[in-house]
Amino acid sequence: MPWKEIWESHRGRIIGIAGGLFFGIVYLMFGFWDMLFFALVVFIGYTLGRRRDESLPLVVPWRNWVGYLSERWRPFK
After folding, report:
1. Is residue 58 within 8 Å of 48, Cβ to Cβ?
2. Residue 50 reports pLDDT greater than 60
3. Which residues contact 48 (CB under 8 A, 6 or more apart)?
4. Residue 30 to residue 23: CA distance in whole angstroms
5. To which H or E segment does residue 12 belong?
6. Cβ atoms of residues 27 and 37 within 8 Å
């Protein structure tokens, strides 16, 4: 079977195995909690980037919070 046919018929399995091998090696080299923290940071970056690409508002409306906090805790009232 040519490689193109194998890739077309088993793409998900190949990607799954490659991902499993990658995360297995990361686990063996750096440890479980470090791997989970790395995955969390990558997920947060992906989510923020996707929201920016799709012109969606950020998860936390920072401008509203800053306005609220600056009015709530004004220094030297």
Report:
1. yes
2. yes
3. 58, 59
4. 10
5. helix 3-30
6. no
Q: Report DSSP letters for 14-60, one per residue.
A: HHHHHHHHHHHHHHHHH-HHHHHHHHHHHHHHHHHHHHHHTTPPPSS
Task: With beta carbons less than 8 A apart as the criterion, state whether 35 and 23 touch.
Answer: yes
Matching residue, tokens 């800053």: 66
DSSP structural state of residue 73: T
CA distance 32 to 23: 10
Question: Residue 35 corresponds to which tokens in the numbers above?
Answer: 């791997």
Helix (H) or strand (E) segment spanning residue 70: helix 62-72
Each residue of 21-49: pLDDT tens digit? 888 888 888 888 888 888 888 888 888 77
- Enter the tokens of residue 56: 């969606």
